[in-house]
Design brief:
alpha/beta, 11 helices, 43% helix, Rossmann fold
Length: 325
Amino acid sequence: MRVAKVEQKGTLSDADLRDFFREMLLIRRFEEKVEERFRAGELPGFLHVAIGQEAVAVGVCRALEEGDVIASTHRAHGHTLAKGTTPNELMAELYGKLEGCSHGYGGSMHLYDVERGNMGANAVVGGGLPATTGAALAFKFRGEPRVAVAFFGDGATNIGTFHESLNLAQLWQVPAVFVCENNHWAESTPGWQHMPIEDISQRAVAYGMKAVKVDGQDVEAVYKASRKALEHARSGKGPVFLAVETYRLVGHYIGDPQVYRSKEELQETRETQDPLDHLRAKLELSDDEVEEIDREVQEIVDASVEFAKNGTEPKPEDALKNIYA
């Protein structure tokens, strides 16, 4: 069950930040459980977890208003939970059950929840960007005060659809926010090997687009930067490129041996860049407080696994439904 949405205001209270901590911890424990069940052979397909990037999902999605929409990536569990899909519906989808948010058709890389404003995860790198520009254009034509948000990684900024989408979004001045989750690895390739620039916010310069940089391990900073970006877009001033510096504390996919980075580097990153540790320190949470929150979210995650296991298996003939050519 998702925590109530934070009241839209300029500052965040300790209570707001505690809610953020709880939601980030829920995402962390959910993904840890997903990895456990995947390694046990219970989940089909590939799985990409976003452990270390929870502050981005929560910070951005908590800044959204009713009616705003998102498009996600192949690393979508955190965005999906933060946008309001219940752990039960998400876990059921990962188990391929009809009760899943995509009714068992999508799995981890194709998580949809249109009713909650999630236009879907996409296995194609950069695949959600054109849909975001299109949705934002529709909002503009209709005169609706809504914003479309795209999540994507640093590697996606080399994809043709990234440049086409940002070019048209700025040309048409649509209400869109492009959230680049720069975790420094395009799967297994460091930024210096695939980009001729160090400052990824410079990607927006060619389009004359407003760019904002923020520390993606600080959920409060992400929330505040997102609020400003969303207000800019919503007020008709055009789209925003939100460059979020974050860290993936795990491999590209579950089972990734991570031979492309040293164990020392990974260990140092885990010790210094965990967004949960940062927020816990800021709130000065005691061990007892953290344990109480942890027990609560762990119960929710465990219950979601039971819900998924008891869900309805699709019929073989269902595979032929919703097919078009």
